[in-house]
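LOG
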Amino acid sequence: MRVVSRIAGSALALVAVLLLSLVGSPVVASAQAASQTHTWHLRNYDAPHRMCVQHGPEGRTHQSYFIFAVTGSWSTDLDFGMRDLPPGWTATESHIPPGSNHPDPDDGSVRVNGFTLVQGSATVPLATYRARIWVSDGTVTETHPADIVVTTASWVDCMQA
């Protein structure tokens, strides 16, 4: 029994040494560097996107598009969609093919290159739902907030709030 426990202890020590050596390996380091130096970004705006929904009777639905821009360059598809939607709501998911989108050197404007359709019942509870637009290359995911406000106020009042 004593020999078996010594063998098991030696084997565990060997495994621990091998695992520790992998933590600092070039493979792990390059994977960490790749996630920190990706070459594209979901355009960050100073405020969340906002959509106002007039609360309505049973059966009434609302749909609208959220648009966004991804800047930089990328060599693989960038998947996108929305999450954290109001209960029962859905959003389309799609992808942006490999390419690039750089700010105009004269005025800093960028081309809108993504949009997602959101839709759902206008009878969900009155609230401001903090949804998120997400874009991912499969390794890195970036998000931007998008408020969906279900209210009894007018659309104009809601948008100015």
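LOG (cont.) second protein
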Amino acid sequence: MTLEELPLAPVSTRPGEATDGYVVTLDAAGVPTGLGLATPPGTAGAVPGTGGGLPPAVLLPAGLSLHELLTSEAVTLLPLNPFGAVVIDASGILGVLEHPTIARHATGAEVPAGRTRSDLAHPEDAVLAGAVGVPVARVLCRCGQLNQVTLYDPDYPPTCGGEDGHPLDPQER
């Protein structure tokens, strides 16, 4: 089952106009940088995780299967956003794959041990693939640098792309 076949929550690309549901912020190229809840009507000011300051956007290609998501390094990106991940394809944003949806469909799934720390190379690493979408998270560091990561371990964060090479310290957008 691919991610586009799972139930996806609707999302707005206009944080200033949305009044309920999910919103994403976009960079100049139209790529999502943050995902959160819209600010409800009558709410004053920005509330973390709502239209004002958004957690990092985790981007998942629509053609990715649920099994591939759960058995690859992509699963390490999911905790970066408390709501879920943005599912995208060539036409744009399809919707939000919420954490409860992932949990409901993953129940009973056989998830092998991770391949992220000191494991031998996996045979699938040698396969030439066609056009492949790679799950990524767009994370804004506290220093202001926008980073794109494919693996995130909070115990050993990747190096920020900023000038001094400090560990990535996510900030809400």
